[in-house]
Amino acid sequence: MNTWLHTASLLLTVCGLLSAIAAYRTTRTFRSALAVLLDFLTAAGLIRLAEDPSWNSILQAAAVIALRKLLTTGLTITLRNPAHRV
Length: 86
Known about the structure:
The longest helix has 26 residues, at 2-27. It is built from 3 helices and no strands. The chain is 86% helix and 0% strand. The radius of gyration is 15 Å and the shape is flat.
């Protein structure tokens, strides 16, 4: 079963990259592509957590979720207040 979970995690990561590229090509916004990619990476991290429930896996999944929250919050604040754009 570990091989199946590892393969599923890898497949989700690849699908996330392809979906992020498709989202960027469709919307032409980095924010939507990043959100799609981070959602897929979150799912892949949770599947990897089911494969190997070690502290290292828990920390990796938590880091991906925290990064996703931080980036989406930062992008939302930047989009709401255009004066802070670079």
